[in-house]
């Protein structure tokens, strides 16, 4: 029995054991049980599991290999929440075990442990912190590194936070944010060792209220990206200077829009620096209480994974969520993005469009069924990377 399989069985056993023990303690102590959760001392635990089956008709995202496969994904999870005084915090764990019937080499076991805290010190000062410890993978074909016989697995971990100062409704307020994250690949080291890196970010935003529910904002942020290999030439500094607006429940919409300039300067003179526009926006329109549209757009730089010096990505998306009644809901979404591989050895350009639809039936408070279909088309000036993908998934989700 391989290590992944042993890990899967251990995690499932622990999940079932912990859930049963939580329930037994709650019953024995006569503690009121909230919907879907069980009290654990001052905390509330919410365990659950999702089981999905589906079919992917192009696993490796290239027209040079059009292998298809059915797949099964089993995802147990648990979340603990607490609200001591004015503060709030939560800790969550999720494990995703994916199995492909026609490509066992692409089976995966991803997990994520995360924690969030919201601390209120005074009526003006507050701190939000987050931490993450994630084992994940890059599916074959999702990067442009030299292909390996198995997906590239990585460990991503770090902490971040936002300190805010300013009373609710005040004319002006500030936020200072910072984070430090590292990514270390665990296998296929011949090609992945060059991608290990640390990213440290520091920034600040000033908000100025111009209406009861509308604020203008001015933001500056810097990220230092340091690669672990001493021979790497990808170390760089990114800077973003942004202006924008944020509003709440104005004419049925809530949103934020930011636009400005971004730069990426490499430590090595052998790489091509970048300077250009940047933006991001997220707007929610709620014409009805049970019908919501979400619009998003962004433009930002990303790290190269083999081709060129950097990746420049711009895109747009829209999602419509509608509750037809208390049990039946639907979600329809569409997105489009352009990836430009810039710098030395670049020149590649991909355009990817996706359309999807999902139907969900909440049979009971603790039991739901959903079916989903996603169609993805990628066009590229390098036809090796073009593909048309159809993904079908059927999911059963259960909680306490």
Which properties best describe this structure?
400 residues, mainly beta, 18-stranded antiparallel barrel, 2 helices, 8% helix, globular, disordered N terminus
Structure, explained:
- With 400 residues, the chain is mostly beta strands.
- The protein has an 18-stranded antiparallel beta barrel.
- The longest helix has 27 residues.
- It is globular.
- The chain starts with a helix and ends with a strand.
- The N terminus is likely disordered.
Structure described in brief:
The chain is mostly beta strands and 400 residues long. The protein has helices spanning 3-29, 189-192; strands at 38-40, 43-56, 69-82, 88-100, 108-120, 125-138, 152-165, 172-185, 197-211, 214-227, 236-250, 253-266, 274-288, 291-303, 310-323, 328-342, 349-364, 367-380, 387-399. It is globular and about 55 Å long.
